[in-house]
Amino acid sequence: MSPPSSFTRRPRLLVVSPNRSHQAVLARRLGAEGYSIVTASDGATALGELRRSAIDVVIAELVMDPMSGPELTRSIRDQAAFAETPVILIASRAEADPAVRAFEAGAEDVILKPFHFEVLVARIERRRAAAARVAALRADMEAMDARAAMKAIELGELKDRMVQLEAERRRLPA
């Protein structure tokens, strides 16, 4: 299952896992799907990678030390530059209430192990598409704000011109 061709550049995923073999498997499989992969073994390194390069989706383990997946998610949400970056947390079925903790922290999705790899890819694409829609809406709002500002300037200029014309009309003999 390849990522849709409607996205122009190769999507960058940040895979965060303290388990090097799990990290390597995800990186290899996602790389084979056409994604550009950046890896990190802990939350602090992940935050550094976010600052270094544009990341489309963060995929992190729920249980990590010293910063857990939910703590990483909160840190991402607290930084305006990354607040809209989708986060998917991977949890073990043995963990108590993983989805609740993940969603409370601001994660967009939780996937439980063991999972079908195709499901992970589908969820990544769903989150990327949603993020693209939000970015398009934000750009439209900014364009509308700019048009509204220009119209306000034009109205101000028309008002000034009207005042000038009215003053000229009063100066003319009746």
From TrEMBL:
Pfam families: Response_reg. InterPro entries: CheY-like_superfamily, Sig_transdc_resp-reg_receiver, WalR-like. It comes from the Bacteria. Residues 12-128 form the Response regulatory domain. Keywords: DNA-binding, Phosphoprotein, Transcription, Transcription regulation, Two-component regulatory system. The keyword Ribonucleoprotein does not apply. This is Response regulator. The lineage of its organism: Bacteria, Pseudomonadati, Pseudomonadota, Alphaproteobacteria, Sphingomonadales.
